[in-house]
Amino acid sequence: QKSLGNLEAAEKHLMGALAGRTKVFGKRHADTLRSMNDMGELFVVQEKLEEALKMFQETLKLEEEVLGENHPYTFETLNNLADLLKIMGKTEEAYKLFMTGFERRNAFLDRVLWVAGDNTRQSYISLHRPEQNALIRMLLSLDDERTARDLFEVSLRRKGILLKITSETQQVLMMSGSPELQAITEDLTQTRKTLAGLTLSGPTDENRKEFPKIIFDLEEKVNMLQLKLGEQSVRFRQSTKQVTVDEVVEGMGENAMVDFMSFRGEDDSLRMLAVVVNAGEFSFVEYEDLELISAIVMELREIVQDEGAEDEDIKSVAYDLWEILWQPLTESLGETVSIFISPDSLLNVLPFDVLTDSDDSYLLENFDLRIISSARDLALDPLLAAKGDLMIIAGPDYDSDKILKTPAAREVTHKRSRSVARGARMGSGLRGLNFDPLPGAEKEGEVIKEVSDTKDRNTTIFSQRAAEEKLLREMSAPPEVLHIATHGFFLKEDEKLKKRLQGLSRGSSSVPPPADNPLLRAGLAFAGLNANASMLGEIDTDNDGVLTAMEVLSLDLAGTQLVVLSACETGLGEIHEGEGVYGLRRSFQEAGVKNVINSFWEVSDAGTQLLMTKFYDKFLAGMPAREAMREARLEMLDDVQWSAPFYWSAFVMVGRNT
């Protein structure tokens, strides 16, 4: 009735419902409190703001007492009250309430996401995204000295939270296989489930007085159990660490940082902001038209990938993007040339170095840009560097029939129907994958081995039939450097894949993850994939030729200094608002890798080999990976034959790269 504009009738109806529920259930019942919140919402529509204020304040007080601070009803009333205070011009009160809600929601998500399935996690984040958008809009409306720092806090606590939680659960699962740790992991999982259940249900009449202490004790137990696991796994300790803004600033050193965040405006339009942190000072830039920025990003990516594009045409588009995206940041960045960048939305697939300034120079020429997934990366102590060799996997034989000859595979082949329906099933998704040989990749591996030999570095190389997926599962210790030159892929969501994909999470969960998980649709191809494709998901093997991004999370790469994914489009994946790219790059980082080099598009064999040769020649001589990659790119830029961004900007390094 409210939506029909018949406000008087709506008020009469809601008043009646409230009176009835109060009489039957009493004022401290959830249904009564729900009616009180509804009444407050109607008062807002009627512009009876003072009455709405009193109603929301009373409701919130009762809900906190009866249902608890983290109950969904309590959150809804708190958000309604915060919005109302903002409307009434009570800015300071609104600000405090918004920030209270933010802290409570962080605690809520930490409790609930950990025990939820992948689909449920994504649903929770999507459900609460409007709440986060409202907080961001509130902070932007303040526009005072608190705004930029608080926006940075929002990004720090929320950006990339889904993959962080997924990584933690994978690590606990891995540790549960250890007899010494099994009891701790089971206790942690059960305690978290109990905590999540109580958070969602709230107190009962029986435990109302003890409820805060029950929650506190459970959280203390979770912390204690996590500390015990952290003693056994530095990677797990890093993943569960609560990072502060001050720790990030300290971790930046003398570098600056630009943290991009997408959000939605009051009209639901996609927008973006950037927080700049420089010399301990916080500032921000708001971009009103994210659609325009995204359109130019796509235009730039398209023209840069055209090997025959004219330099002036590339620079024209690159300047347009510099003008709208980068120029507004220049005042805050000042003279600082070493800058960390944490992208969001489509900026995750933008080669920032290609942007062209008003002096017709690429950013590569004047800035040392360092891409990171999240600001929290800068506050984490580096994992102890792996002491393993340089490991190269290059040019697999995708037609290798080694697995087909195993008894398990022969049994599957014998049992399966030869029907037309089977042939149709093979035509799409992972079973439809078929890769051509990559002679250039094998040559690339050999060239890197030659460079490594001149530096007296221990190097192992696996090619053709030996370039198997199981190599990464059976390592005795993490390699210092891992170079993989093979095909990468990312499949778009397809309903037909659902059952099929559920069988491809080997080693990642006893319960098959949801089939629309993008971490199951991104992967690398290894020896035997073409031969095994028709049986993917049916043969229980760790060596079927497909390594998905989800499976990467279960690899032990803690302390590996660098992974190079020299494959087509390994930097791509599914872009989630506020979550970055769900794909191989992020998974390798979560598996403990310090820096990842991946590609945005396919480059010629000769171009890739030249860049990698220049890079490894410097890196293996002792130059930091970040510096070595930048120097290699600059050398190509200075060479007329290789000066097109098509060659030198396809590969990007992501990580702390210090």
From TrEMBL:
<protein>
    <recommendedName>
        <fullName>CHAT domain-containing protein</fullName>
    </recommendedName>
</protein>
<dbReference type="InterPro" id="IPR011990">
    <property type="entry name" value="TPR-like_helical_dom_sf"/>
</dbReference>
<feature type="domain" description="CHAT">
    <location>
        <begin position="318"/>
        <end position="656"/>
    </location>
</feature>
<dbReference type="Pfam" id="PF12770">
    <property type="entry name" value="CHAT"/>
</dbReference>
<keyword id="KW-0802">TPR repeat</keyword>
<dbReference type="Pfam" id="PF13374">
    <property type="entry name" value="TPR_10"/>
</dbReference>
<dbReference type="InterPro" id="IPR024983">
    <property type="entry name" value="CHAT_dom"/>
</dbReference>
<feature type="repeat" description="TPR">
    <location>
        <begin position="33"/>
        <end position="66"/>
    </location>
</feature>
<dbReference type="InterPro" id="IPR018247">
    <property type="entry name" value="EF_Hand_1_Ca_BS"/>
</dbReference>
<dbReference type="InterPro" id="IPR019734">
    <property type="entry name" value="TPR_rpt"/>
</dbReference>
<dbReference type="Pfam" id="PF13424">
    <property type="entry name" value="TPR_12"/>
</dbReference>
